[in-house]
Design brief:
198 residues; 39% helix; GTP Cyclohydrolase I, domain 2; 7 helices
C-alpha cells in the first residue's frame, strides 16, 4: 500500500466531498465510506514514490548472445489506473516489446513495472511513455515499444457516454521507433487472436 498517504486527510476530504454534493456523510450507509475510499486510494496510488526503473534493474539478468532473440513481446498485461483529470478509473491491456541488449528481464517483472507506473494519477499517453523509459533505462535496451488499449470511465460514464469506445496509444524508443520496425512489432502483437490491436 501507499506509505505516503495521509489517511486522515483523505477521509476528511471524502466527508467534505459527500457534504458538498448534498449528502449527509453521517447517515448509516455513508459512515464507513471515507475509510473505504482511503483503502481504495491506498491501492490505486500505491505506485507513488516507486522507482519503476529500479524494478527493471533488479529483475534483469545477463544473457548469453545465443539466448537472445530479435525481439521479446509480452501481450495482454492487464492494468488499471486512475485518470488524473477526473479521478475516474481506466482499465486496459498493455502489450510490451523490447529488443534485448546484454540483459533480459523476467517476464513477470514487466507486469510489475506496468502496475507500479499505472498505480498513480495518470494519463494514458504518459503511462505508455513512462513504461518505455523504465524498460529502456533499466535494461539499456536498444528499442522498446508499448501499446496500451484502455477503456476510460470518464468517457463511458459521463459526457457523451461512449460505452463501446476504447483508446489506443503507442510509445516507442530506439530502434523500435523506426516506422518499419514499429509496424512489424505491432503486427506481431495483433497476431494470434489478440483482440486489442487491429
Amino acid at each position: 500500500m501507499n506509505g505516503r498517504q495521509d489517511r486522515a486527510r483523505v477521509e476528511a476530504a471524502v466527508r467534505e466531498l459527500l457534504a458538498g454534493v448534498g449528502e449527509d456523510p453521517m447517515r448509516p450507509g455513508l459512515q464507513a465510506t471515507p475509510a473505504r475510499v482511503a483503502d481504495a486510494f491506498a491501492e490505486f496510488f500505491s505506485g507513488l514514490g516507486v522507482d519503476a526503473t529500479d524494478i527493471v534493474r533488479r529483475g534483469a539478468v545477463p544473457a548469453e548472445p545465443d539466448e537472445l532473440g530479435e525481439v521479446v513481446i509480452v501481450r495482454d498485461v492487464r492494468f488499471r489506473s486512475v485518470c488524473e483529470h477526473h479521478l475516474l478509473p481506466f482499465l486496459g491491456v498493455a502489450h510490451l516489446a523490447y529488443v534485448p541488449g546484454e540483459r533480459i528481464i523476467g517476464l513477470g517483472t514487466l507486469s510489475r513495472v506496468v502496475d507500479a507506473i499505472a498505480s498513480r494519477p495518470q494519463l494514458q499517453e504518459r503511462l505508455g511513455s513512462e513504461v518505455v523509459s523504465a524498460i529502456a533505462e533499466g535494461l539499456d535496451a536498444p528499442g522498446v515499444l508499448v501499446v496500451l488499449d484502455a477503456v476510460h470511465a470518464c468517457v463511458t460514464t459521463r459526457g457523451e457516454r461512449q460505452t463501446a469506445s476504447s483508446t489506443v496509444t503507442v510509445a516507442s524508443s530506439g530502434v523500435l521507433a523506426d516506422p518499419v520496425r514499429r509496424a512489424e512489432v505491432i503486427a506481431l502483437i495483433g497476431a494470434a487472436g489478440s483482440g486489442a490491436v487491429a
